[in-house]
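EI: anyone free to look at a 205-residue chain?
SC: sure, send it
EI:
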Amino acid sequence: MNEILIYIADDHAIVVEGLSEILKSRSQFKIIGTANDGEALTKLMLNRRADVVILDINMPKMNGIQCTEWIKQNFPKCKVIILTMFPEKTYIEQLIKAGADGCLLKSRGSKDLLEAIDRVVADRSYFDTVQDFQAPNDHPAYNLSEREIEIIKLIVNGDTSAEIAEKLFLSEHTVKTHRKNIFRKMNINSISQLTSLAINTGLLP
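SC: here you go
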């Protein structure tokens, strides 16, 4: 069987390592490079083509959707599989519009990933887990309270904890506790990730 050249892009090293181990189970799969942000991936691709690119949807500099658009414009034959932790149906429409060949939740197993690669390499799409994705109105916004959503808007606006506390008549300690809970619930660790996720999931326009 012909060798299948693969790039992996994810800003979490442990995810890249895990994906690499899964792909090593197939002798025809050859990982030719990894990147931890979208811009680094584009530079790799300009140096060497790939058959398949596996992308995290939330990455710094260029997110998965932006990368997909770039890949399809420059390497239309390259297959793109998007990985995400967030089961939001709003993603599907954006991914299809960008030209993605498949989408997979990170919570799925190695068998699903290998099947997704087999499918896209055979010129078929892989959105089999689309039923796992929820419409925004059916999803409890990561169990965020109205107060937490209010604080998210102010954080994204650039307000400090002290400024948020003054605007909402709260103590700064209370605001910091809310910030900590927001980051935990959304499984993020930076304001840039918060901004991207809040926009992509409809929490913010």
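EI: The beta strands are 4-9, 29-35, 52-56, 79-84, 102-105.
SC: 👍
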